[in-house]
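User: Batch of two.

Assistant: Item 1 of 2:
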Amino acid sequence: MGRVLTVDTADVDRDAVLAWGRSTRRDLPWRRTRDPWAVLVSELMLQQTQVSRVVPRYEVFLRRFPTATACAAAGQAEVVRLWDGLGYNRRARHLHQAAATICDRHRGEVPERLEDLLALPGVGPYTARAVLVFAFERDVGAVDTNVARLLARWQGRTLSRHEVQAAADATVPPGQAWEWTQALFDLGATVCTKRSPSCGRCPVRPDCAWAGVGADPAKGSAGVGGSQSRFDGSDRQGRGRLIAALRRGPVASADLAATAGWTDDDARAARVMAALVHEGLVVPDGDVYRLG
């Protein structure tokens, strides 16, 4: 195989990447399955959440909800409770809705077509393609932040969203999409990192147009995540506190501000709770609120 692939200005040695991946691949529970439901669960859990936090929650969740049918049959509140520790609780709601859609439209089986996956609640272009690659081993490129950063650096320039996806699709070695994509994920997570990349340890440094010299082309490139807003004191922090309390039981209307950590701002707490109700995560019940 070797250097048989040209993607714009970058010649990528796919054999070197695959060999590196085989020797360094992290042992993660979702890499031991091709079950589409388990893959979908892992991908939604991993969105903006560290691997170390996902591993124990993933295994607990799948023991309770081993299939989309089991998840759809449960109440949304139970799904949200099991999401404890993963943050971004609307993803739990989306997963529950996706399970219901899978049951209603696909007889309980996660669909194999891109357009059907994209129609599931909470499933975007990356997640849909990740399911195709990791569950069905289709030869398509799955572009997360790590892969987008790799591709921009390899080519030595910022890329548009269309260029990133086209390059990702073109780099996949036929019949080896699963192995290739896992290698790229690990390479971006452990070597070609956002800050202080270890170019000396990179298996494709000879082919990289950037190789750590000059301005980083990944900055501003499509698919490369930017900096996140401050968490301390944010609405996100208050939302998290409210959901954490609701997992333990109902929260009285009079206690919203204290529960959210804003004892002097009743209006802010009420606004955040109203948003949770609007999203369907929480339901009002007289003078208290409960998980939806």
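Item 2 of 2:
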Amino acid sequence: MRNHDDNRKLLSERGWCRFEYDGGVAAWVDSALPLARKAVVAEEHSQWLRCAGTWFLGVNALPNRPDSSVGTGPELQGEAVDFIRQEICADHFDWDAAQVSVFYPGYPQPKESESEKAFQYRSRRDAAHVDGLLPEGVSRRRHLREHHGFILGIPMVEYDEKASPAVIWEGSHELVRHALTERFKGLSPEEWGDEDITESYHAVRQQVFEQCNRVPIVARPGEAYLIHRLAVHGVAPWQNGAVASADGRMICYFRPEYLDASGWLVNP
């Protein structure tokens, strides 16, 4: 079993680490899964069903409390939580309402009003992106709008490597950090969100594709994985022969925003 030092090194060098099965995570999954299933079919979340019904985006769709508990279930506990609190941000955050991310056979299909170029990028490049750099307007210009502290993925059901796993480009977080540090040079952090960083973002993304290894992330219920907030990541297409539960490939993601712009870029 890896210790905190091992995972700290992996997160620093690769931009992600995986935590082995933990009873505390498994107990949280058991309590959260029924409500995650309800969230997927809830009328108020119908806007999250995309790509001809093959993707439920589910942003903040899980009705968990700021302590992470869902319904009458326990708070999220285990090695992953201990690592986050001891190595990343101590106790200075509340858990956000988790994203309920679900993919189904046939993904990807074109989204409504999605250009052919955008669809091809989704299909061939896994819709690779950095969280918090949001596309805005008709021309989809990128701006830094969200300052997530980390991305914690918690598998809710069984799935295999063909069932649209998350993918990450290892080491990409440091390339992104360097590119944006250069782009924001001479500006105060308060000004960063006003800057159109589209060209810098596209350039570093291409650099990542050329220099970093693309790695799928597969984990089971009771396990968890942590992705660095600056890492380029995405979701692979659903392949023929994929094995998953009737729920599809369902993962809950926590992405709490507790940093300012400077901390988002500078912190380890």
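The longest strand covers residues 249-254.
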